[in-house]
Specification:
The protein is of the alpha+beta class. It folds into three domains: about 140 residues, no CATH class; about 80 residues, no CATH class; about 190 residues, Beta Polymerase, domain 2 (2-Layer Sandwich). Helix content is about 50%, strand content about 15%. Strands 6, 7, 8, 9, 10, 11 and 12 form a seven-stranded mixed beta sheet that branches. A three-stranded antiparallel beta sheet has the order 3-5-4, with no helix packed on it. It binds zinc ion (ZN). The site of zinc ion (ZN) has 7 residues, from helix 11.
């Protein structure tokens, strides 16, 4: 009996460690070695406890426990892997599982009951019962979240013409085929049943990148809130920061709005001896916890992500990594460095065509960024590089030309035609 309780607790620990690990693919990073090893060791301990006893090795229990963990964890990981198309892992099976991620774990319920009855091993039975109880809880919580009130947003002419083009005119079939639950067609007019703080976010990495739709109006609204929230926090903390990447491109080229297919807000910050990682991280974590935003810190990568969705309490905290959608501000750390005799602001990760620095990072000349200026953005003003246009040239070359960076090639070609024609719906 005691061993059964331990098997149950060990599976729970393995599960929590695994869903925490999923924050990496969700933020387009390969999982860290240390975090992967922790999960791997916990999984191995669970399997060992379930299948080893004083009488020797229980082979059926070994096969069932290994098989279960592999299949169930693949199902659980699917939405996070689908977040990271560049990894090459997001194939059709992953997308299918991600689409059914709210309840796909329960597909293992019948095999679990069968194995539990066929093999009389109380530790295996406890392990299977715990795994299925977690999946059932996840399903019920998603069902509950899905029933929260949503606000109905109208779609702009441009949103609608992009939607109609990508759906080849048949919205009903398109909605059905891709499971676009937010799309409201019943009332005659086309509307969008928007996501909110209490509902799961729209899975717009699918809608935007794969299907080539515009970012949903609800998500754009929340990105606006989030960008001003984060910028205000940084101002309050006295952190040097500037709008980065696609967000800066929207601010400069699209007169202070988001790109139509924007999938996150990019803000960069400058750290030094005074404004350390620790100060930045604790300042952002404290404020976000108080104001209902979720913060994820990646110290080694020099990266902070702040999500629009509120943080959940333990043990549900990391289960958010099973969700399909996310409205997020990505905050990238820069530091001053000398490269090829020039003072540059340097980051660890690659961005656009930013040149490599001597020390193996990527950097821009300091005077292009400092002292920062401001730019109108989503109804307010946000800090931007001193020479915003030169900055964009370093990242994107001739940025006046529209490039559908994150959109799959088929939908990108279809939408390129609309963007040339303008806002008239294309039949
Ligand atoms: Zn939304």
């Amino acid at each position: 009996m005691f061993a059964a309780l331990i098997a149950s607790a060990l599976y729970m620990a393995t599960y929590l460690s695994f869903v925490r690990l999923l924050r990496y693919p969700r933020n387009w990073y390969p999982p860290s070695l240390q975090a992967s090893l922790t999960t791997g060791v916990l999984a191995a301990l669970t399997v060992a406890l379930v299948s080893l006893s004083p009488d020797g090795l229980d082979r059926p229990a070994l096969a069932v426990s290994v098989g279960f963990i592999v299949v169930l964890f693949y199902i659980i990981a699917a939405p996070a892997i689908a977040f990271w198309p560049a990894s090459g892992l997001a194939n059709r099976a992953v997308e299918f599982l991600a689409k059914h991620g709210d309840y796909a774990g329960l597909w293992l319920l019948a095999p679990a009951i069968f194995a539990g009855l066929a093999i009389s091993n109380i530790k295996l039975q406890a392990f299977l019962a715990t795994a299925m109880a977690i999946e059932l809880t996840w399903f019920l919580r998603q069902l509950w979240a899905g029933r929260q009130r949503r606000r109905l947003y109208p779609l702009s002419n441009n949103d609608l013409s992009v939607l109609e083009t990508q759906a080849k005119g048949d919205l009903v079939a398109f909605r059905q085929r891709h499971g676009i639950r937010e799309l409201m067609l019943s009332t005659g007019a086309v509307g969008w049943n928007g996501c909110g703080k209490g509902t799961p976010a729209c899975p717009f990495n699918l809608y935007v990148n794969r299907l080539g739709l515009n970012t949903a109006p609800c998500c754009r609204d929340h990105m606006k809130d989030l960008s001003h929230y984060v910028a205000d926090c940084l101002v309050e903390m006295g952190v040097v920061h500037w709008l980065e990447g696609g967000s800066l491109l929207g601010a400069v080229r699209e007169s202070g709005t988001l790109l139509d297919w924007e999938d996150d807000i990019d803000i960069s910050v400058l750290l030094d001896d005074d404004m350390t990682w620790k100060r930045l991280a604790s300042g952002l974590a404290e404020r976000s916890a108080r104001d209902g935003y979720y913060v994820d810190l990646f110290k080694k990568k020099g990266f902070v992500s702040i999500s629009f969705s509120p943080p959940k309490r333990w043990p549900f905290r990391w289960e958010r990594n099973r969700l399909r959608g996310e409205i997020r501000a990505d905050i990238i750390i820069y530091r001053q460095a000398i490269s090829h005799g020039e003072t540059v602001l340097e980051r660890r990760s690659h961005k656009g065509a930013m040149p490599a620095t001597e020390s193996g990072g990527y950097g821009v000349p300091q005077e292009i960024v400092m002292p920062t200026s401001t730019v109108p953005f989503l109804g307010g003003k946000i800090a931007c590089p001193n020479q915003a246009e030169a900055y964009l040239c370093i990242l994107y070359g001739d940025y006046s030309e529209v490039e559908y960076t994150y959109v799959d090639s088929g939908p990108a070609n279809a939408r390129a035609r609309i963007d040339i024609i303008g806002d008239t719906p294309v039949q």
